UniProtKB/TrEMBL annotation:
<dbReference type="Pfam" id="PF00501">
    <property type="entry name" value="AMP-binding"/>
</dbReference>
<protein>
    <submittedName>
        <fullName>Benzoate--CoA ligase</fullName>
        <ecNumber>6.2.1.25</ecNumber>
    </submittedName>
</protein>
<dbReference type="GO" id="GO:0018858">
    <property type="term" value="F:benzoate-CoA ligase activity"/>
</dbReference>
<dbReference type="InterPro" id="IPR025110">
    <property type="entry name" value="AMP-bd_C"/>
</dbReference>
<dbReference type="GO" id="GO:0044550">
    <property type="term" value="P:secondary metabolite biosynthetic process"/>
</dbReference>
<dbReference type="Pfam" id="PF13193">
    <property type="entry name" value="AMP-binding_C"/>
</dbReference>
<dbReference type="InterPro" id="IPR045851">
    <property type="entry name" value="AMP-bd_C_sf"/>
</dbReference>
<keyword id="KW-0436">Ligase</keyword>
<feature type="domain" description="AMP-binding enzyme C-terminal">
    <location>
        <begin position="411"/>
        <end position="489"/>
    </location>
</feature>
<feature type="domain" description="AMP-dependent synthetase/ligase">
    <location>
        <begin position="26"/>
        <end position="361"/>
    </location>
</feature>
<dbReference type="InterPro" id="IPR000873">
    <property type="entry name" value="AMP-dep_synth/lig_dom"/>
</dbReference>
<dbReference type="InterPro" id="IPR042099">
    <property type="entry name" value="ANL_N_sf"/>
</dbReference>
């Protein structure tokens, strides 16, 4: 058990996440930039001051150890102060998407006592404070010291809501002991993070992938991070990279492809030394186009909210396009037989490691189903070749067509290799009382209605030349966009639900 510090002299005596900023200040690097925004930079010393102010203000609002606080903010200094200020007093931050209607549910589900939001019209059973109000200077020379609070590795650190792609999102409880394994094993040993790195994550801080790449990893290693407000798009991403010159980029396949279509000059990306991808599988064609355009290899990996971040990844200088790479140091992966795998040797992926979550809040059935001892069931189908893992799809997304199991991911990868395909999602639909394959395709350019039939026929021929007969889509529909979760995953169930029994395309 450890006492929470009131100043940098005590940093050696507190849980690592509590003192993530204190440690940088204590070693004499307080003047170094911690955060870059459009308003300028915030030093580690200034950030520590804001975290302490936030912690004091939350304490005065009555927040105590293990109390939950819903953080409904965009990526910002205010988010970091709210998150780490809560952690500093032993409270449990619960980040949520500021553009979705999840906050009211999260407040009720978590029993939160405080909600930090810039949507000041919010009402509910808890106290509401704005991000700016949380870090506003206290009156006069008010002492913002805090009473000693004991925090150790078994205490709750934060919650993260799962994407909820098939129903109400589950609250994933992470403990303080979970943090070091991901920050050291993945960010430290796989990425080789340096204190001089500048991070930029297009995935937002309310998502596990974004929380790692946009807060935990840079601050843990004494690096800095650039924030982009609003929903990320090619123009904003390119502008942020040009302005703040990050060295490490975390993004998702759809945005990597969107940046390729945006055709920004390669000189704008010259500051980057590492590009990371997760949330959705990165197809080999997108990887190759990015490398050819910018001279950078994208490090694709597997991660999840339950495991906090990436636990299997390609390495710098050791990348195979289309593969998810090898296990991150400290993690074990196991492929187990499962009915319905689409090819011999494939299986369901189980994983265990130092960042495994503790439980789903108030959902014992789901928690029991997710674990077998210390092993976590991912629900993903993989095959392994020469120690590298190859994604075949979610088990829920595997399709039984004509008595054979088919991987949607294999079909999507084939279609993504076509130069006129920007994005694609494949699902099974019912037609004439039979299961059929339907591909929803976002074209890489505008397609006149008079040309759509020809493109659809071309895409089906393209698949027929590259896939087994049972893998060729029966239907292809051209769409403007695909429905996605806030983390960037395609909501395939939404595509299935919109289809009538007599699908046509």
């Amino acid at each position: 058990m450890n006492a929470i510090p009131d100043n940098a002299d005590d940093v050696a005596h507190a849980a690592p996440l509590v003192t993530i900023v204190d440690r940088v200040v204590a070693r004499g690097d307080g003047a170094r930039p911690a955060i870059w925004t459009d308003d300028g930079q915030v030093s580690y010393l200034r950030l520590l001051r804001l975290i302490r102010i936030a912690a004091w203000r939350l304490w005065t609002l009555g927040l105590r150890q293990e109390d939950r606080i819903v953080v409904e903010l965009d990526d910002s200094v205010e988010f970091v102060a709210a998150f780490l200020g809560a952690v500093r007093i032993g409270a449990v931050p619960v980040p949520v998407n500021p553009w979705a209607d999840l906050a009211d549910y999260a407040v009720e589900h978590s029993g939160a006592r405080v909600r930090v939001t810039d949507r000041v019209d919010g009402v509910g059973p808890c106290q509401i404070v704005t991000g700016e109000g949380l870090i506003a200077p206290p009156p006069g020379d008010l002492d913002i010291g805090l009473p000693p609070i004991r925090i150790d590795g078994e205490d709750a650190a934060f919650w993260l809501y799962s994407s909820g792609s098939t129903g109400r999102p589950k609250a994933v409880v992470h403990l303080h002991r979970d943090i070091a394994g991901s920050c050291d094993g993945y960010a430290g040993r796989v990425l080789g993070v340096r204190s001089g790195d500048v991070f930029f994550s297009t995935a937002k801080l309310f998502h596990a992938y974004g929380l790692g790449g946009g807060l935990l990893f840079p601050l843990w290693h004494g690096a800095s991070v650039a924030y982009l407000r609003g929903k990320p798009g090619p123009e904003g991403i390119t502008r942020t990279i040009a302005r703040h010159r990050p060295t490490v980029l975390f993004s998702v396949p759809a945005l990597y492809h969107a940046m390729l279509r945006h055709r920004s000059g390669a000189e704008r990306f010259q500051s980057l030394r590492l590009c990371v991808s997760a949330a959705e599988p990165l197809t080999a064609p997108v990887w190759e186009r990015w490398r050819d355009a910018f001279g950078l290899e994208i490090l694709d990996g597997i991660g999840s909210t339950e495991m906090l971040h990436i636990y299997c990844s390609n390495r710098p200088g050791d990348v195979v396009a289309g593969s998810a790479g090898r296990p991150v140091p400290g993690y074990e992966l196991d492929l187990r037989p499962h009915p319905g795998t689409p090819e011999p040797g494939a299986g369901e992926l189980w994983v265990r490691g130092p960042s495994t979550f503790d439980s789903y809040w108030r959902n014992q059935d789901a928690t029991r189903e997710a674990f077998q001892g210390s092993w976590f069931r991912t629900g993903d189908c993989f095959r392994v070749v020469d120690g590298r893992y190859w994604y075949l799809g979610r088990l829920d997304d595997l399709m039984k067509i004509g008595g054979l199991w088919v991987s949607a991911h294999v079909i999507e990868s084939a279609l993504m290799a076509h130069p006129l395909v920007a994005e694609v999602a494949v699902v099974a639909v019912r037609a004439a009382a039979m299961s059929r394959i339907k591909a929803f395709v976002v074209p890489a350019r505008s397609v006149p209605e008079t040309e759509s039939s020809a493109l659809i026929a071309e895409l089906r021929r393209w698949c027929a030349d590259r896939l087994r007969a049972d893998q060729v889509p029966h239907y292809v529909e051209l769409v403007d966009s695909l429905p996605k979760t806030p983390g960037g995953k395609v909501r395939r169930f939404a595509l299935r639900e919109r289809e009538e029994p007599s699908a046509v395309g």
